Amino acid sequence: MIDVSLLGWLLITLTSPLSLVLLLVALGSVAYLGVTALEAAPRQRGARAVGTGAAACALAAGMIGLRVGAGAGAAVPTAAVGIAAAAAIGATAACAWTFGARAAAALGAARARRSAAALRAGDERRRLLAASQRAYAEGDDLAAETASADDAVARLRAAVGALADARAALEAKRAGAQDGPRSETRPEASALAEDLARACDEAALKLSMGQRVLAAAEAAALRIACNAPLRRLLRRRPREATQALATLGAGALAPAAASLEAFLGEVRAARVEVMEIAGRRAPGALGAVDSAAGPEAAEGPAALALRELAAMESAYGALLERLRLAELHASTRASVEQVESAAGALSATARAAAIDPAAIGALVTEIARAESAIAAAAPEAGGSRALAEALAAGSAALDRSDATSLSELIAALRELR
Question: The pTM is what?
Answer without folding.
Answer: 0.50
